[in-house]
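Dear colleague,

Thank you for sharing your sequence with our group. We've completed the structure prediction you requested, and as agreed, I am returning the results in plain text so they can be pasted directly into your records. Please verify that the sequence below matches your submission; if there's any discrepancy, let me know and we will rerun it promptly.
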Amino acid sequence: FEPESTAFRLELSVLSIQKGGAGDMNGVELSKAQQEQTPYYVRLLLRNVGSGNVAAHDVDPADEFQATDDRGGQAQELTLLGHFRPCESVEEPKSFTQGVSYETCVVYMVGHGGAVAQEEWTGNGGDAYSSNPIVWKAG
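Please find the predicted structure tokens below.
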């Protein structure tokens, strides 16, 4: 990833796409619709392989990931506050400089017996990845 307005390069990896269990959500406040959905956990690795401090820019690269379900729809990302043991979300490091990496996890909710089929990185909206995302297939 190398947007025109910035001077950094990232190495992006989807480490795993894992189906969670309904019991994982015990104690999590969910809407009625979400209570009937299945959680999926997508673990990501982001590494700065170029010069510059990525954190100095307004874009958090982890926010540019999205999941697609097996019916072609966008899976609903669930933002959880605090610690969620099955899928810990980690913020971008304050000093995200060359050689620094971090892992984070995103929770998606999928309904009607569906599954996360792929994870995509779409860039920051102003680059070529918006129309031609990087895709990782599940399984």
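Summary note from our side: The CA atoms of residues 64 and 124 lie 6 Å apart.

Kind regards,
the structure core
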